[in-house]
Amino acid sequence: xxxxxxxxxxxxxxxxxxxxxxxxxxxxxxxxxxxxxxxxxxxxxxxxxxxxxxxxxxxxxxxxxxxxxxxxxxxxxxxxxxxxxxxxxxxxxxxxxxxxxxxxxxxxxxxxxxxxxxxxxxxxxxxxxxxxxxxxxxxxxxxxxxxxxxxxxxxxxxxxxxxxxxxxxxxxxxxxxxxxxxxxxxxxxxxxxxxxxxxxxxxxxxxxxxxxxxxxxxxxxxxxxxxxxxxxxxxxxxxxxxxxxxxxxxxxxxxxxxxxxxxxxxxxxxxxxxxxxxxxxxxxxxxxxxxxxxxxxxxxxxxxxxxxxxxxxxxxxxxxxxxxxxxxxxxxxxxxxxxxxxxxxxxxxxxxxxxxxxxxxxxxxxxxxxxxxxxxxxxxxxxxxxxxxxxxxxxxxxxxxxxxxxxxxxxxxxxxxxxxxxxxxxxxxxxxxxxxxxxxxxxxxxxxxxxxxxxxxxxxxxxxxxx
Amino acid sequence: xxxxxxxxxxxxxxxxxxxxxxxxxxxxxxxxxxxxxxxxxxxxxxxxxxxxxxxxxxxxxxxxxxxxxxxxxxxxxxxxxxxxxxxxxxxxxxxxxxxxxxxxxxxxxxxxxxxxxxxxxxxxxxxxxxxxxxxxxxxxxxxxxxxxxxxxxxxxxxxxxxxxxxxxxxxxxxxxxxxxxxxxxxxxxxxxxxxxxxxxxxxxxxxxxxxxxxxxxxxxxxxxxxxxxxxxxxxxxxxxxxxxxxxxxxxxxxxxxxxxxxxxxxxxxxxxxxxxxxxxxxx
Lengths: 467, 283
Known about the structure:
The complex is a heterodimer.
Chain A: H1 3-8, H2 19-22, H3 35-42, H4 52-55, H5 63-71, H6 75-83, H7 89-95, H8 102-105, H9 117-130, E1 146-150, H10 154-165, E2 169-173, H11 182-185, H12 194-207, E3 210-212, H13 223-228, E4 233-236, E5 256-258, H14 259-268, E6 286-290, H15 294-305, E7 310-314, H16 326-334, E8 338-340, E9 343-350, E10 356-369, E11 375-379, E12 385-388, E13 391-394, E14 433-435, H17 438-441, H18 446-466
Parallel strand pairs in A: 1-2, 1-4, 2-3, 4-14, 5-13, 6-7, 6-13, 7-8
Antiparallel strand pairs in A: 9-10, 10-11, 10-12
Chain B: E1 3-10, E2 15-21, H1 23-28, E3 34-38, E4 46-54, E5 59-65, H2 69-76, E6 82-83, E7 85-90, E8 101-107, H3 111-123, E9 127-134, H4 143-148, E10 152-157, E11 164-165, H5 168-177, E12 185-189, H6 192-204, E13 209-212, E14 228-231, E15 234-237, H7 238-241, E16 244-246, H8 252-259, H9 263-282
Parallel strand pairs in B: 8-9, 8-12, 9-10, 10-11, 12-13
Antiparallel strand pairs in B: 1-2, 1-6, 2-5, 3-4, 3-7, 4-5, 13-16, 14-15
Helix pairs in contact in B: 2-9, 5-6
């Protein structure tokens, strides 16, 4: 196909469930490309020389390489190309913010729409799994080195995948009863089906990674005990910690949740299938979700699927400052989530039994930019109003989990309690101990955690081989 | 990690003692810590305090009261059965030091978590006054164990069927504080109203009082925030900041409300389980 023909093809939309239907079920929203759509979309890639898309990828996928194979119809060859550098393509194809990474750099985006790189990645990963064609790549000869990975979220899984291929022996210690970290407790089924996460972890197990669930490092064993037990290096990818609250009156009323709890109940514990599953969740009729990030969108869309009449997304700045992906905001609005922008709760109102029945809000206006560069929201005096709500989900971020830091002498943290680690290597202040993901950066994205894991794996490899 | 039941005893009508194979936890646990159990694939995660452990045999003993579906299901299990997950030890251990005379107070199934703390406090040389109580004689558990680690020992029953007639808080005040006996510290564990009553008494005497809270938890490792409690006007997390707190600072009213969040769902789940169990028996 010549350049002119390629340039003529429009960006292919991905079929998805109708908003009215999907707002009441937990099935995945996008249905994925068909092989025909995928080939057509792949043909839009002009295979330019400079490959700017790859600069935008934290895990350095050979993007033009895998897309060229799709265009030729070699889907299995394509996924093999991706898996050279990315152990979790089915996950990344779904949850990466491609619009600010690979796709933002795509030359086709300069005049028109960029190539749908994420949708293509997702397509070949799903194709391989559906065909039962998942193959196990060659591993390097055993090195005799042992590495402990603490936490099985995106950072830990990436480290494990990279190091096992280099011939090391890798054990993952996971605190919860299922591996996957935020991929299983945080991101909802309708955005990332848990069977897909399980398949990606199964792939790592087939590569030889040992996964120990229900092991809380810092409690059952300390980092020093792991090092003394013969692990040559330890990677800490323990993820998000305790939820942040606003410290306003009524936050401990019944019916007020942190997003972490709300999503963990629904996703990890499958409370949306109560009483088939034992874990309950409050199914509110009028639900307010506080925050403007991807986690807030997940919570709001979960509330709708649990049967709410109204879900209000309450955010103190305006739409342009919302940290959530545009696609997520779009999906939420399509499903009937009502945005209350430039609004903040000032207190929650409870009844005599300690249940939340309302919240007092205040309107905001935007002032001068703050340290984050976003315009600071300023309360408007006299703008207070009361809204009836029976459930509130606070999704304004998390703080550092203290379990490892408090039991590991020599491991320095910053003033917020996050582990101090070198940006390029993940090396902490303690010899042989590396860290990456949310426990270093605070709340960020899946792919940034994977990028940190990739760098740390390289540094850990160099370190253990020089020992 | 899955864990096998190696011993099971019924201590009273609704209270069971189960010993699980969990060698790593048995070696590591310290007084005041707890575990999370999940019985089966659809099960919930529930926190249970460690009543005792045997590091050499590699076992931990859990004592629990049947209050809902999960505990009822667990009470149906037999020696040799396995539960799907036993995670721990969790929570901050009790600060054990020699302070002089310590009153260790346990109410109902709360006697179980008081036992290892009492043992720890005794081992470092404290003079131990134990006061354990329940509604009626048949509900008193671990009497012998508690007596074995105590210098002075009082049993109370609400109905007077055994020992001191009244609440543990009344025994503490009438037998010790009113007569002016010197106590340096109190540890009180039991139902929230009992802990609140003890704290109401000890506040009057400015007697430092530690309570151990059994909040609703999900992950129990410092992630979800379900277990939050107001202590001294600040939100704290029972799973990592606790489970022990200064009883004079705890907002017990809020704690009672929060323990009732899922009352309806718990009942629905339990009723369904009980009707299934009955049908199974009939068959």
